[in-house]
Amino acid sequence: MRVDAFLADSAEVVQGKIYALGAGWNTIFMPRFPAAHRRLAVAATVHVPFTDTNLKHHLQLTLVTEDGKDYPIGLRAGEDGKPQAIRAMGGDFTLGRPPALVDGDEQVACLAFTIEGLRFAEPGMFNWVITIDGEESARLPMRVQLKTQ
To answer: Which of 16, 29, 119, 138 is the most buried (most CB within 10 A)?
Structure first.
């Protein structure tokens, strides 16, 4: 499957289309560290070949450091009520074959993930990684650096 993805300040999917604001960047400038970035979105179109329609697929979005370690993208309360790191977002999806679909044509799924308050202890290089069915399908580099005057 082919995945086209981008970073934006905000993105959402409405009636099968991605609506984005502040799209097409790859660097976050912070005035100091540690820091929290207010909001960002990872938006993607997943191009599903005709032969892969009507099948369940699993998509996962993770953030990794430049040395390949998973980086937490948020926190949620665990069963014990204590905060636990969120290290991935995603889920299962299936695209069917509508009656008017021409044999052999691909289907396109539009997705948008919003991450609020992403924390960074220090500057560095990161990559947003999208995997489908366990295979890496897209990688978006993102640098976080100190803002200079």
So the answer is: 138
